[in-house]
Amino acid sequence: MAVRLKDIARDLGVSLITVSKALRGIDDISEETRQRVLKRAAELDYRPNMLARGLASGKTFIAGLIVPDLLHPFFAEFAKSLNGVLRRSGYGLILASSEEDPEIEQQEIRAVLGRGVDALLIASCQPTLHGFYGVEDQRTPFILIDRDFPQLHAHFVGTDDYAAGLMATRHLLSTGKRRIAHIAGPSFTSGAERRRGYIDALRERSLPVRESAIIDNPRVEETGEEVGYQGMRQLLRRKTRPDAVFCYNDLTAIGAIHATLEAGFSIPDDIAFIGCGNVRYSDYLRVPLSSIDQSTGLLGERAGKLTLDLVKSRATTLKQIRIKPRLVIRASSARPERASARTRASAKP
Amino acid sequence: MAVRLKDIARDLGVSLITVSKALRGIDDISEETRQRVLKRAAELDYRPNMLARGLASGKTFIAGLIVPDLLHPFFAEFAKSLNGVLRRSGYGLILASSEEDPEIEQQEIRAVLGRGVDALLIASCQPTLHGFYGVEDQRTPFILIDRDFPQLHAHFVGTDDYAAGLMATRHLLSTGKRRIAHIAGPSFTSGAERRRGYIDALRERSLPVRESAIIDNPRVEETGEEVGYQGMRQLLRRKTRPDAVFCYNDLTAIGAIHATLEAGFSIPDDIAFIGCGNVRYSDYLRVPLSSIDQSTGLLGERAGKLTLDLVKSRATTLKQIRIKPRLVIRASSARPERASARTRASAKP
DNA sequence: CGAGATCACGTTACCGCTAACGCAAATCAA
DNA sequence: TTGATTTGCGTTAGCGGTAACGTGATCTCG
């Protein structure tokens, strides 16, 4: 059996509670006693039983994170970064993947709450608000990640997707393109906001916003490449071909580029592309892909800090954190000579 | 406050323990009572408090997974797959990333064990066995993932890396290449075994194994591209240039290919490449990358099943699961016309 | 018909830890 | 000196479950 407080107490001839206090650094114990306790605890390699501690104190020092897909680099990087912040404060992370299935997500939310996490972070794939029954009335603080549900009045940490859409489209416009299409994402806020940014960027220039230039896709995350490929084939069949495409994410863009090259067009001269997410390999693709960087690591850090704030104090004010994205220009939207000046940071908010 | 067994018991006028038994399906309760309990539990949306259950029963229904890097597609996919298997059996997964730092790994092992996981899965980055102090003597069953420590006599689930090295090198040989170099991985078993496979494949053909044709790298995981890039530049400076390179993993290969194209060589005619891992984007790279697929999803499933076996019964027999890898040929090692027959599965053991 | 078996449910004692007091001795103020 | 405060440690009572036994009633069967 593992070492318990009781064992240390017996060895030292003090009471169990004294040991507990000494180890937790409660200012109620003489320095000498504390040192004796610490010494003995180290000798015995004492590890507090977090279950017991959690049960007694009502805090588990665990946060829960539910993501739609761990394989998606965005969520993987987010989880990694979040984990780092939490670890440094002694917090653990319990992770669940909903596989983009609202049902599974519900299950996982129940399961994770049952495990008594101190806070819950959810990148939800619920199509409607309805699915949040059971989280709202809970006392466990929760934070929405990446996909917001404005009606929910919940804490939120994510990308400024409207800015991303605006930025991407403005960039394509700045290269002289005018017939800009959009392969859109799912109807979560992330997809909707990027789309809104796209539309507003066109309006700024008084360019027509054609519904036929927007390809809608309910589910993009899992099969982005295929969706991009099929979407692009549709666009190429239109009488007026686009001369640039803003894709919801990088995977979609990769698929779209594939379809474009297959059809014999040149990139970026005939058609330029920009994605979103700035995946690790963007530089090494057949056509290095321009993209909008979401500063995912920073997102994870911010979410971690907010989590710690929430569990420590009852910070009731609603936090809505939206990180400004960054434009990264590569060959898919710029002629080689221009692409040499690779990265251009946007102004900070 | 959340609903407790006590609340249900009070409502129904039975004792707490009756409710507990009814919910756990213990065959000691009349069907009628059980139904009443189930009904009321559903109405109140009862969720068992896993902390209390864990404390009382000694089982937490949580497994711990410690990986060096969540961002690495291999570990992300493994975690995803493992999580799926565990979820279907009501098990949770607590995740920790060691950031490839043995110290952090140690901390995390302690932390995760303190949380009372029923089993621990570790893809370790310990350079020596020494770091496992504290895991071995523990009663918690543990499984090594991907990187084996043969001296430890622990359960292991991973790729057959020797076969991977053999397969990759044989493939390059089969395309007529003879001066085959190797950009090797870290000195864990995964790296060492792939290297051994490489060497044996050359020996089979009685080809010389030159130390100068092997580039060693202590830490490849995080900065694979850079390591591959620098390693390849070294190789290109040698008097006898290689005509093919087997890279420890895909990221390394991507970097190496970059260096090669930059130096003005053509792929695969001047120099062919093969990586290992078969990352998602391999098809869409500047030069589509031949690779060894590790069937990561399958690995996760196997690890999940082994975990469940271990926590359920005291399966004492040592399990060593090594999944046979699969060769995937793309343009980096084959002329376009041959590359059309894209995927070729290896013989099953 | 009575003794053991079976059924359906209850009591008790923890699991390891913490919150919230309790309390004696030492220190301090007046 | 004396009451009030501080210091340092201990007691008690759970947290929400589960394990391991009770226990009283009904059933079974020679």
Describe the structure.
Chain A is 42% helix and 14% strand. The first copy, chain A, has 349 residues and is α/β, with parallel strands linked by helices. The first copy, chain A, has helices at 5-12, 16-24, 31-44, 50-57, 73-88, 102-114, 161-174, 189-204, 224-237, 250-262, 296-312, 336-339, and strands at residues 62-67, 92-97, 119-122, 142-145, 155-159, 180-183, 214-215, 244-247, 272-274, 291-293, 320-323, 326-328, 343-344. In chain A, helix 1 packs across helix 3 (31-44). The model of chain A is unreliable at 337-349 (pLDDT under 50). The longest helix of chain A has 17 residues, at 296-312. The N and C termini of chain A lie far apart (54 Å). Chains A and B meet through helix 4, helix 5, strand 2, helix 6 and helix 10 of A and helix 4, helix 5, strand 2, helix 6 and helix 10 of B. Chain B binds a DNA duplex (30 and 30 nucleotides) through residues 4-6, 14-18, 20-21, 24, 28-30, 33, 48-58.
Summarize it.
The structure is a homodimer of 349-residue chains. The first copy, chain A, has 349 residues and is an alpha/beta fold. Chain A contains twelve helices and 13 strands.
**Chain pair sharing the greatest interface:** A-B, 54 and 54 residues
Name the assembly state: homodimer
Total helical segments of chain A: 12
- Binned, the helix content of chain A reads 40-55%
Structural class from helices and strands of chain A?
A: alpha/beta
Q: What is the ordering of alpha helices and beta strands of chain A? A: HHHHEHEHEEEHEHEHEHEEHEEHE
Biggest sheet character of chain A: 6 strands, parallel
> Rounded to an integer, what's the Rg of chain A over CA atoms?
25 Å
